[in-house]
Amino acid sequence: MKINNHLSTPAYNNKYGSKQTNTSTNPAFGDLKTVGSKILKECNCDNGSLSRYAFLFISFVFLVGSRFVESRNNDERREVLTRDIPAVALSGGGVPIMTGAAAYAITKKSGIPISTSKKKDSILHAALCSQKQVKDWYSDLKNADNPLINLMNTVERHGGNIRKVMNRFGFEKELGAISTSLENKDIITAAQTAQQNGSESFKTLENLIRNIPEDNKVLKFAKNAQAYVKVGGIAVTAGLLGFLLPRLNILITNKKHEKKSKETKIPAKIPAPQTENKLSVSGIKASATLGLHNSSAIQTFKSFLG
Hints:
Blueprint: H1 10-16, H2 27-42, H3 52-69, H4 74-110, E1 115-117, E2 126-128, H5 131-138, H6 147-157, H7 162-169, H8 172-176, H9 184-196, H10 200-210, H11 217-263, H12 274-305
Antiparallel strand pairs: 1-2
Helix pairs in contact: 3-4, 4-11, 5-11, 6-9
């Protein structure tokens, strides 16, 4: 059974169809659909992981927010601000930026790309590549279409240096037969020209690229460098989250309670004024003197009576 099935009949459409408005032109629903699509795209878990922005949003709202609301006192609220927020920010944003920057620096120094970037020559937008990407770039090229030009374009696109890569492969002479330039774009242009002309030097270098062994020097260097950066990022994160932030919070808490205990400490009794003591001593002396005079007067009166 269909609800309002009569609304789709030919008679109803002929009578009232011209009066219906097109709801697809409603801008409000269109905007909501666009926003919803963006949210779903950020939360897409098809590849097994959330995007960085989705991770940060969920962590700040549900993890940090709930801890802050459930805090029992100001000390726990302050710990959320000085421990939990930096921890989430470091895990979700700081580590990728840090490892990406390290990978970018290694790529520029060695000429062998181990980073990817949406914006070329931008250290802030660089990201550490995976071991699978490294293997795809520098090995198993025998079945690839146009492997030499594709490899050159990959190195250029990710900020590497074609000549340094070829030198590490051991193909310095073969590349020199095609181009002696140090610039990537010039080398790529020369290689494309040699390919179009059917140059033997191009065919020789391309055959070498097709038969690159699995244990070649470029692949070994890239895999080791990628692993070192990854382990270094984990070590720095563990040190910051496991030692530095907890230690900092302990020091702040101890300092706060130490200051509070000093402010609420009960003051010692104020000693009695010295004037009272002096008066008391003077009174005792006066009494003793008066008693001595009375005793002398009695003795004198007894002597007078015989």
